[in-house]
Design goal:
The complex is a heterodimer. By secondary structure, chain A is mainly α. Chain A is built from seven helices and no strands. Chain A has helices at about 10-25, 35-45, 50-60, 65-70, 75-90, 95-110, 115-135. In chain A, helix 5 (about 75-90) crosses helix 7. Chain B is mainly α. Chain B has two domains: about 1-35, no CATH class; about 35-95, no CATH class. Chain B has five helices and two strands; from the N terminus they run H-H-H-H-E-H-E. Chain B has helices at about 5-15, 15-30, 30-35, 45-50, 75-80; strands spanning about 65-70, 95. The longest helix of chain B has 12 residues, at about 15-30. The chains are: A mainly alpha, B mainly alpha.
């Protein structure tokens, strides 16, 4: 998926994004391997060092997503955050009620319309399915 | 929008990946997807001489160094090729110098 937006994020925004991701990962009470991989990859792409990442993960239970979301004032960044949250929520092949609550709350605080969230989520799901289908066709894994 | 309605919509969009991937693979290799494609044959191709059931259309690109005769095969055959399943005689692309 398009990651050009990363270059436009400020350092503070990247930290806010990662804090929200960590909070989202812990929302369903279990941490899936796919979620951990997503977190590792995105932290690397954001240029965040391991020590900072470990501190964020350790304090995940205390993270207030609404406070973090209020730091995101750029519309494009807000849409990208919703997109990444939808990826994270769906990537473990399970969708928990708490995850949906966080996505909705964060989106609404940032002024992203409910209809837009629905569209983004649908697009993310289609992309994930298409990507997994491609991996099966190309014999990279069992899907 | 009511919060519970939004949650219901988001939840209804979700399909377990195994099921969704299986459906997508089935669709990609189905006759419906490949409908309309024709098997074409080159009159210069030895392999194609062996198959009299195919009609031929030769498309020559602007590049004259390699005379490439493109054979349009059904999408099903292309997918089978990707999966390592043998296809009927006749190559997908021939190079004639």
């Amino acid at each position: 998926m398009d990651e050009e937006y990363i270059q436009t994020l400020s350092g503070a925004e990247k930290i806010s994004f990662l804090r929200i991701f960590c909070r989202l990962i812990k929302a369903d009470g279990s941490i899936d391997g796919e979620e951990v991989n997503f977190l590792k990859k995105i932290a690397s792409r954001y240029g965040i060092d391991s020590a900072t990442m470990v501190n964020i993960i350790k304090s995940a239970d205390k993270i207030d997503c609404m406070t973090e979301a209020r730091q995101i004032r750029n519309r494009q960044h807000a849409l990208e955050l919703v997109k990444e949250m939808c990826v994270l929520a769906n990537i473990d092949d399970d969708l928990h009620d708490n995850e949906l609550d966080i996505i909705i709350d964060v989106a609404r605080v940032m002024g992203v319309e409910d209809e837009k969230v629905i569209l983004i989520n649908r697009w993310v799901l289609d992309s994930l399915i298409l990507n997994k289908t491609g991996r099966v066709i190309m014999e990279k894994d069992n899907g | 929008m009511d919060r519970n309605v939004l949650k219901r919509i988001l939840r209804e969009q979700f399909t377990p990946f195994e099921q969704a991937v299986s459906q997508k693979l089935e669709y990609l290799s189905s006759d419906k997807y490949s409908q309309g494609s024709e098997s074409l044959l080159s009159e210069d191709c030895i392999d194609c001489w062996q198959n009299d059931n195919n009609k031929s259309t030769i498309i020559e690109p602007d590049n004259t160094e390699d005379k490439i005769i493109l054979h349009k095969k059904s999408l099903t055959e292309k997918i089978n090729a990707l999966r390592g399943i043998s296809t009927p005689p006749g190559s997908y692309i021939h190079n004639f110098r």
